[in-house]
Amino acid sequence: GAGVSQSPSNKVTEKGKDVELRCDPISGHTALYWYRQSLGQGLEFLIYFQGNSAPDKSGLPSDRFSAERTGGSVSTLTIQRTQQEDSAVYLCASSLGDRRNEKLFFGSGTQLSVL
Amino acid sequence: AQSVSQHNHHVILSEAASLELGCNYSYGGTVNLFWYVQYPGQHLQLLLKYFSGDPLVKGIKGFEAEFIKSKFSFNLRKPSVQWSDTAEYFCAVETGRRALTFGSGTRLQVQP
After folding, report:
1. For the residues A9-14, what does the mean pLDDT come to?
2. Which domains does chain B have, with CATH numbers?
């Protein structure tokens, strides 16, 4: 596709359930990022993948959060045992090349609501 | 840890007015600086960036930003705004090739 694709666009879940969010980056982009944005706040870094290197997981808020990137392309962010404070917009971005943060192309995000 | 402050949360201007959006960061070392913009119904996109060199950087759509190291600032400016500039603007800072730290954003509303 032409841009970063995220699915679902909206997800409503009950507290304690697991959710999976998907990101399909721009073809050829080696770097992939996950951020989240809570209401009225800035984007919060979660995790960064670059090629075959070990991901930078330093932003994951707890061990309930995990992400993987298969085949250097599609990524899945998994949140286990969701809590109400996990409610946010989860944004995925990708970029071309080895320089981190050079120019991020963002998807439209997944709005997660935990009831 | 570094932080980024955007003190103006909501700015309302008339068309042709001049714009300046504030961005201050807290980090004493070398920084790289960015402004991202999100137009209504669209994705976040890069407006401009500063890595090194001339502290006055120009971006798309007539925007510019000035890095003032002594003030820890990277304010965004445009001499004359248009209705189409209505959007949310985010300042971001990168230190040591680590993750970007974003401000909380400034919502700009331009009235025709």
Report:
1. 97
2. 3-111 (2.60.40.10)
